[in-house]
């Protein structure tokens, strides 16, 4: 069968007889070149939501494709996995993959194999599937049945566990999983060393995905205020790992330096801050969450977090990140809440006040978006003026050179 080039209107060409013919090619016993062409066609089909919807309506096709992840041809297996990566990116496909096709146990089994060639693709599939809360619960449930979260963290933190895969998207999976209270409970188990193993990756320069996923995981864990004292204690010592990526090379006074955690004292002149604004924002949100309790606020004040935030605020250009920094600074330099409101996460907010806060938050976001657009326009205008100035200088130089050449000739 000659496979038609993919386009949306050609979905109609795959009638039942064509699908039956295509299925006959999706077997391990079929010639490798034929399987490669067939899976390549279906990979193209999975490239947009219409194609994914079509594939999800054909369970026989998906079953055959999943069986081909055991094919001896690595090219065929790779294309099959990329099909499932594309499918998992579409939320409407999750039910089919998780409940009907039941891909999770097999994927976890393969992920545990240190010699498996396609573990990075599996991590991408898990990352996509766990973005949706309902599917995330199933991903976590099967994880606990097949592997266990501590074992997953162990694999993630073991350098070179799989020489064929970097496993960076496992960090995104961990971040998604820790949106669930039951996953956070395991991550924050005081009898295990789980969350502590993730801390060094807050400055992992080799991958922004791994770095961001770990920081997202730490931020989620900071939502559980009953663990704040433990997180800030020497048993975990989370504060330097959240603060160091936000610190720069600015010179602080001796008094300010001496009040900081040891790892943040007298930083070198070439110290650079976290380059990704989304990650910077997550770090600030984590610190802000730690100020929800009395002990957290006291610790951040005692550890002299304010000078780091003061310098960071002067350096930060992103308006959204800057706004998050301002909220943290207000807590650090402000008075303690009145009695009965010490734990900000347990304060009961009247419904009418909550509605006002929501409206204020929406208005604040709109103002920040407007400010961001204006800032972007100013930067574009500045770049345009600089380019124009450069062109003018170049033209003037060309004129001078022509005059000079003319004088030499005469």
Question: What order do the helices and strands follow?
Answer: HHHHHHHHHHHHHHHHHHHHHH
Q: Could you say which structural class the secondary elements and strand pairing correspond to? A: mainly alpha
Low-confidence segments, ≥5 residues, pLDDT <50? Answer: 1-10
Number of helices: 22
Number of strands: 0
- Sheet-strand content, in percent, reads under 5%
**Into which percent range does the helicity of residues fall?**
55-70%
Radius of gyration: 27 Å
Distance between the termini: 77 Å
Shape: globular
Main beta-sheet strand count, sense and barrel state: none
Arithmetic mean of pLDDT: 87
Gist?
With 410 residues, the chain is mainly alpha-helical.
Would you kindly provide a written description of the structure presented here, covering whatever features stand out?
Helix 7 packs across helix 8 (119-129). This protein starts with 15 loop residues before the first helix and ends with a helix. It has 22 helices and no strands. With 410 residues, it is mainly α. It has helices at residues 16-25, 32-45, 49-56, 59-67, 74-88, 94-100, 104-111, 119-129, 133-146, 149-157, 170-177, 181-187, 195-198, 208-221, 228-232, 239-243, 254-259, 277-290, 294-302, 305-315, 319-333, 351-409. Residues 1-10 have low confidence and may be disordered. The protein is globular.
């Amino acid at each position: 069968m000659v496979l038609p080039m993919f386009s949306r209107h050609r979905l109609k060409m795959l009638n039942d007889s064509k699908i039956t013919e295509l299925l006959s090619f999706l077997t391990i016993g079929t010639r490798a070149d034929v399987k490669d062409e067939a899976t390549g066609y279906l990979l193209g089909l999975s490239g947009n939501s219409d194609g994914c919807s079509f594939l999800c309506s054909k369970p026989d096709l998906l079953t055959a494709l999943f069986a081909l992840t055991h094919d001896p041809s690595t090219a065929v297996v790779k294309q099959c996995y990329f099909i499932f990566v594309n499918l998992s990116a579409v939320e409407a496909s999750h039910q089919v993959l998780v409940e009907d096709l039941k891909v999770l146990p097999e994927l976890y089994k393969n992920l545990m194999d240190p010699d498996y060639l396609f573990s990075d693709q599996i991590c991408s599939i898990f990352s996509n599937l766990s973005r949706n809360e309902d599917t995330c619960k199933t991903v976590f449930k099967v994880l606990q049945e097949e592997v266990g979260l501590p074992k997953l963290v162990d694999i993630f933190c073991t350098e070179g566990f799989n020489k064929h895969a970097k496993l960076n998207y496992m960090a995104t999976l961990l971040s998604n999983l820790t949106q669930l209270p039951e996953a956070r409970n395991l991550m924050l188990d005081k009898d295990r060393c789980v969350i502590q193993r993730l801390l060094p990756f807050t400055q992992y320069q080799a991958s922004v995905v791994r770095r961001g996923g770990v920081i997202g995981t730490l931020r989620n864990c900071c939502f559980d205020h009953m663990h704040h004292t433990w997180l800030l204690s020497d048993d975990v010592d989370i504060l330097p790992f959240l603060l160091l990526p936000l610190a720069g090379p600015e010179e602080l006074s001796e008094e300010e330096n001496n009040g900081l955690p040891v790892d943040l004292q007298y930083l070198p002149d070439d110290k650079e801050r976290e380059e990704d604004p989304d990650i910077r924002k997550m770090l600030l949100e984590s610190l802000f969450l730690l100020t929800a309790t009395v002990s957290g606020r006291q610790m951040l004040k005692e550890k002299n977090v304010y000078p780091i935030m003061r310098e960071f605020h002067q350096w930060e250009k992103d308006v959204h990140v800057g706004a998050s920094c301002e909220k943290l600074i207000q807590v650090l330099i402000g008075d303690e809440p009145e009695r009965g409101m010490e734990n900000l996460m347990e304060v009961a907010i009247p419904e009418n006040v909550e509605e006002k806060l929501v409206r204020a938050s929406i208005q604040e976001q709109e103002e920040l978006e407007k400010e961001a657009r204006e800032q972007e326009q100013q930067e574009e205008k500045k770049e345009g003026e600089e380019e124009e100035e450069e062109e003018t200088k170049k033209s003037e130089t060309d004129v001078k050179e022509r005059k000079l050449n003319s004088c030499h000739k005469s």
